[in-house]
Amino acid sequence: MPLPVWLLRHSVALCLLLLHSSVLLTLCFHHASTSCSKGCYCSEAGAGGGRTVRCSHAGLGEVPRDLPNDTLRLYLDFNHIAAVSAHAFEGLPLLAELDLSHNAIAKLESGAFHGLEERLQRLDLSANRLMSLNREAVGSLRSRANLSHNPWHCDCELQHVVPSLELEPASLAGMVCETAVPEEHAGMPFLLLAHDVDLCNMARRTTDVAMLVTMFGWFAMVIAYLVHYVRQNQDDTRRHLEYLKSLPGLQSKSEESLTISTVV
């Protein structure tokens, strides 16, 4: 029995609608993976998949959010990025090389490199304003890293985090302590300092010494107060006795006592 004409028409319309939706979805996914961020240049994907995205000298103040998800190498150097926010590169599962050098980065938020732990092979953070690294920001990255030419504050935390990264040769001499705990190590290359000095133990010793100095200061203040209190009471007692002696009744009694003692 042949199908009604209206049913055939509806079936054809439904098939066309599904086909149209599939085409739109395909185009959307293709655009998401091939479009390039404003101010950036994106190369064509290579034979192995993945493209190079260059956003150097683009005047960027933050990491772009619309980067192609097949980005393999990303260059964000020579911009004005001041901080790397959490999950900034989470949508880039193929990313193997990341250049953030020559920016104004002073802060890496916790989870800044989340999602890159397995793939990232090279990280360049040189020539920024980083003073410290924390474990939450670096996560479990095992990439080669360039950390040179930053105003590092060399302390226990930095000594714990840096060994988890494979430093490039440029970091051997270029990673210098602008400040340090203790202060006498400022100006030294970090790797040389970290090799010879246990900064964590030094920090504990410094804290212990500071506590002893504080306790001694309080003890000296207590002693000084007690001495002042005793002297003040002595002065008050002396003035009171002098006042009593100056009273007429007491003065005559004193003279009588003196006469009796003379007669005896």
What topology, given as strand order, has the largest sheet?
1-2-3-5-7-8-10
Structural class of the secondary structure composition? alpha/beta
Shape: elongated
- Rounded radius of gyration (Å): 39 Å
CA(first)-CA(last) distance? 159 Å
Order of helices and strands: HEEEEEEEHEEHEHEHHH
Please report the number of helical segments.
7
Proportion of beta-strand residues: 5-15%
Largest sheet: 7 strands, mixed
| Average predicted confidence as pLDDT | 77
- The beta-strand count equals 11
Explained architecture:
Mean pLDDT is 77; it is low at 15-33, 203-210 and 258-264. The chain is 44% helix and 12% strand. By secondary structure, it is α/β, with parallel strands linked by helices. The chain has helices spanning 5-34, 135-138, 156-161, 170-174, 190-196, 199-245, 248-263; strands at residues 41-42, 51-54, 71-75, 83-84, 97-99, 107-108, 122-124, 144-146, 152-154, 166-167, 177-180. Strand 1 and strand 2 (51-54) form a beta hairpin. The longest helix has 47 residues, at 199-245.
Write the layout of secondary structure elements.
Elements: H1 5-34, E1 41-42, E2 51-54, E3 71-75, E4 83-84, E5 97-99, E6 107-108, E7 122-124, H2 135-138, E8 144-146, E9 152-154, H3 156-161, E10 166-167, H4 170-174, E11 177-180, H5 190-196, H6 199-245, H7 248-263
Parallel strand pairs: 2-3, 3-5, 4-6, 5-7, 7-8, 8-10, 9-11
Antiparallel strand pairs: 1-2
